[in-house]
Structure formats: structure tokens, C-alpha cells
Amino acid sequence: MEKRITFKGVWLPLALIAPQIVITAVFFFYPAGQAIWQSLFIPDPFGLSMTYVGLGNFEFLLSDPFYRASFVTTAIFSTLVTVVSMGVALFLAVLADRLIKGSGTYRTLLIWPYAVAPAVAGVLWLFMFNTRVGVITWYLGQLGYDWNHVLNENEAMGLVVVASAWGRISYNFLFFLAGLQAIPRSVIEAAAIDGARFWTRFRTIVFPLLSPITFFLLVVNVVYAFFETFGVIHTITSGGPQQATTILVYKVYSDGFVGQDLGSSAAQSVILLALVALLTVIQFKFIERRVHY
Amino acid sequence: MATVTLENLKKSFGDTEVIHGVNMHIEDGEFVVIVGPSGCGKSTLLRMVAGLETVSAGTVKINDTPMNDTEPMDRDIAMVFQTYALYPHMSVFDNMAYSLKISRVPRAEIEARVAKAADMLELTPYLKRKPRQLSGGQRQRVAMGRAIVRKPAVFLFDEPLSNLDAKLRVQMRLEIKTLQRELGVTSLYVTHDQVEAMTLADRMIVMTAGVADQIGAPLEVYANPKTAFVAGFIGSPPTNFLDAAQFGGSPAPGTQVGIRPEHVRLTNGGASNLEARVVYAEPLGAETLVHLTTPDGSAITVRQDGALPVPEEGSSHGLHWDAEHEMRFSEAGQRI
Ligand SMILES: Nc1ncnc2c1ncn2[C@@H]1O[C@H](COP(=O)(O)OP(=O)(O)O)[C@@H](O)[C@H]1O
Ligand SMILES: [Mg+2]
Description:
The structure holds two protein chains of two kinds. Helices cover 72% and strands 2% of the residues of chain A. By secondary structure, chain A is mostly helical. In chain A, a hairpin with a 6-residue loop joins β1 (41-43) and β2. In chain A, α1 crosses α12 (262-287) and α3 packs across α9. The longest helix of chain A has 34 residues, at 65-98. The two termini of chain A are 21 Å apart. The model of chain A has no long low-confidence stretch (mean pLDDT 82). Chain B is an alpha+beta fold. Chain B has two domains: 4-233, 3-Layer(aba) Sandwich (Rossmann fold); 240-329, CATH 2.40.50.140. In chain B, α2 crosses α3 (107-120) and α2 runs parallel beside α4. The chains are: A mainly alpha, B alpha+beta. Chain A binds chain B through residues 184, 186-187, 189-197, 200, 204-205, 208-209, 292, and chain B through 50, 52, 71-73, 77-79, 81-83, 85-89, 98-99, 102-103, 146, 150. The structure holds adenosine-5'-diphosphate and magnesium ion. Adenosine-5'-diphosphate binds at residues 13, 18, 36, 38-44 of chain B.
């Protein structure tokens, strides 16, 4: 039997969870509530009065081709970020797992990118790929490739994906490595004796046993790609060229703070919120079934 | 069917040598048990035969073919691990069928072979379960099943029974022996339990600190231990060791006399080799173990028939044994 600690009374438990509740209320419930409220109005240009429009903001948004394009952009962007950051992290973790002794240093080095703020990461990548002075741009030029993400939409997307994924790799790596090291050595050895070579073992034993971690990382990384990549996009492309990298969360910002269309921006936040909730539910409902705990 | 040969096999981890040169030839169909205290290198030796550990020096041969550089999957062996090492996400059926699927055995044959093994091991009702839904004994059987469906040339067992309770251990011991006889597969079995070794082995290797002290049939090893370690390790209660100097003569300093508990008799009057005082007695029904101390303070255990009167604590008795049962060991522990 697991030993449970119980608290008598009401006040102590309340006091213990209060900080968390307060933080959630101030930084999540309050703004979310305000966004839902604001999404029903259109403020006048001077912000002095608001006109109630019901679901007008939503109707307008859904018929706006730019908004629908942003959906597609977001889908491509978040899929790529998730696949790249998890794929590279898993690959590195498998390599590190094979030389466990050296992995102390390896691990420390790989965790560094995680400590870099997204906006700073964006600036780093921007410098390397700067169309005039970037190191990598120069090397690509030497190889005869003319890199210009300011004009080329695919290159812009590639760059923000790489910059966003890069910061996540270390986080994912740590989880994958921990997961790999939790698989009993003898299970892998048994599979080797049973005739499975490296790839077969990976496919039939290692990957299935990692599935709870993979699933967790999938949820976390999708949420990351949806929201926290704002800083990267803002510093590298500002959503351009031609909205090619304007993901939904960036559009909330550019329509609301740059375009000053607060009603539409609020409606977009609400849609985004609903979308992430929906995605998470789908992930839990359909993917979790295939996870072996 | 296969023979296994170890030639001057050595293993070092870094600068520490843990196996110091073991030689052994295992005949086709033979059941050989490696027995020794924890940490003496039994698992390491077995893992070198399996190919899970590289060989530092010497040669592992299966069917006279050197195997040092052969991958585990190409050695035609099966291994049962102490922790069973079942695949936790697969059903019992899939656990047993795994190796057959990998070697692309036709589906019908896989099913037939798994069904046969499951039947032998009484696992048929559990084929659809996951390992975590099984008891310890059942998991152990699945691990056995996984080994036998493959029809390997050699079985390797690394303390397969040590995670079971005492009763189940005795039962499984018998089953493993029966199964091995039936299948006739050459087997190498590691255990720290000398009773297990005695009951299972055709021949056993008694190991200590990376050295094979003695190799031989269990009763032969028991009757004729070559070193003090073997005499002390094989047999329960263990052999008594006494300083040879107290029996007169002038043996080399450090010489010890070993005498098995069942060879010592308590005498009251009559010929005796030694006087000793009873510390306590353990009447076990069929037999009684009497623990005594000799005048020089060494402990000695006597095993006597349960029908004889149980000696009182604190009483003094003469101890007698026949000269032919005396085993003498040099200071270095070698039999003289
Ligand atoms: N991978 C390893 N690295 C370093 N030392 C090891 C390793 N595996 C085993 N040893 C050492 O080798 C010795 C023998 O170990 P082992 O074969 O597991 O003993 P046993 O199975 O007889 O209990 C022990 O002293 C152990 O500490
Ligand atoms: Mg061991």
C-alpha cells in the first residue's frame, strides 16, 4: 500500500495550492476571459467605445483568405518543428545511449540551446543566415547557392523551423535519453540473442517502450510550436515574406498590436485556444491508445 | 546439438581482471553448472559465451568454431536472464514468437512451436496476457519458453530461479532438469546456490574470484574437494576447518584439517580426536545439527541422526572421525 499523507481542515490545503491558482488565474483565466469578451466587440479607432457585434468577428475571420492561409502555414510549421526537433533529439539520444560513459559532457553541451531564449535564438540564426553578412549565407554562396530568406518563402519557412526546432532539441533529447536508459539492458540483450539486429531492436523493442515519452513530447512540442515560437518568428522574418511564416499566434500579434484590430485579434486568440484544446484532446484520445505504459 | 569449449578465457574491465583464465570443455547435451559466491565472475563468464561481453583473452568455441568475434544472434544460443528480461509491451505469445518472427519462420509453424512450448510449460491459458499480468513463476516459464521455441544449440541460464520463492524454486529446478533431459540441449547454468548446482549438474564448475577451482561431477566434487574453498562452499552445513597442529605430528604451519559435519560423531568415553563444548543444538527432525567450540576456540558442526538424544547446551563431548575422512589443506588452500 502506498502511504498517503492527508491534511486535516481546509485552510492549509488551500494555502498550499493558492500560489498556483493565483498564477493560473492572473495569467490564464483572466486574459482568456477578457479575450472571449473582447472577441464579441469592435472597438472604435480611438478605443473610446465598443460596438457589440456578436460572432461578427469570427464570421469575418473565417471568410478571410489570409486567415485561412495562416492555418495552413501553422499546420506545416508546427508539423515540421515537431518532427525535426523530436527526430533529431531521438537520433542524438540513441547515439548518446550507446556511449553512456561520455554522455555526461555530451548531455551538458546539448542542454545549452534550451537555456537560450527563443528571441535570442532567433537573432543567432538570423546572424548566421543574414542575406548580406551571414556566415552560412556566405558558405552557401561559395557553393553556388544564393540564400535569401527575405525573398524566398520556402527558405524563410526552413529557417524559422530550424531556429525553432533547435531550441527544443535539448529538451527532447533529455527526455529521450532518460527513456532509453530506463529500458533494462537485459531486455535489449535478450532481443539481440533472439536474433534482432540494431534496427529491428529499435523498431520492435526500443521505440514501443519509448512511446509514453514520445507521446508526452508530442503534446508538449505541438503546444510549443503553436505558441512559444513567436519570438523566433518575430526576430527572423516578422511573419514574412508575404505572410509565408505568419503562424496563427503571430497573426494575433500583428493584427492586434500592429494592425490595431483588437476585436479580430481577440477572436483569433479564442480560436487558437480552442484549437490547441482540440488537438490535445485528439492526441489523448487517438494516439494515447497506441502507447504502452 | 553442440559442444562448448572455453580455452584460457580471460576478462578484464579496464585494468581489473575479473576472470583469470578458465578452461572447460562441455560435451554435447551435457548440463554444466557454474557455481560460486556472488561477484566471482559467473555472469561475466556466461555473458562471454553469449557474446554479450567481449573476450579479453582466450577463446570461446561452439562446435569447435571460434566465436570470439561472432555477434550474439549468430551463435545459435538462447539465454534465460535472472530478471527474465521479457518484452513488457508484448503478449506471452509474442514474447515466445519474437525470435521465430525475426528469422521469418512461416506463421503456421510459429503457432505450432509456441503452442507446443506453452503446453510443455503449462502457459497455454496465458498466451494473450502481458508479462506484468503474470506471477513470478509464470514469467520465469515464459522466459524458458522463449528459449526453447528457438531450438538453439546451447541454453544459457543466469540464475534463472533466484527471484522465486523457495518452494517454487525447488519445483522449477526439477522442471528445468526434466526439460533439458527431454530436449537434450547442451546447457550452461549459473547459480550461487550450491544445492541447485548439486541437483542440476552433470558436471559443475566451482568458481571463486575469477578462477575455476574445480570441475567435476557433483558427488565427486563433494567427496573429493581440491581446495579448501570448494570444501567450504559445497555442502551444507559447510565443512569444518581445524588447525592441524592440535592433532600432533608436525604439519607445515597453517595446514588445516577439513572434516564434513556428517563424518564427526559425539563420543562419551572411547576413542576421540578432540574435546568440545556444545554451544547449541538444532534438532531438525530427521537430523540434528550440533554446534560446538573446541578448546582453541574454533567452531565445529556435527550432523547426527535425529533419533539420537539431543546433547545439552554447555555439556562437553569427545569428537571422533575416521582418518579416511580427514581432508588436509595447505595454507594456500590446496589439498595435500
Ligand atoms: N560492466 C562491468 N564493469 C566493471 N566491472 C564489472 C562489470 N560487470 C561485472 N563487473 C565486475 O566483475 C566481477 C564479476 O561480476 P559478475 O560476473 O557479475 O559476478 P557474479 O555473476 O558471479 O555475481 C564483479 O567484481 C563485478 O563488480
Ligand atoms: Mg551474476
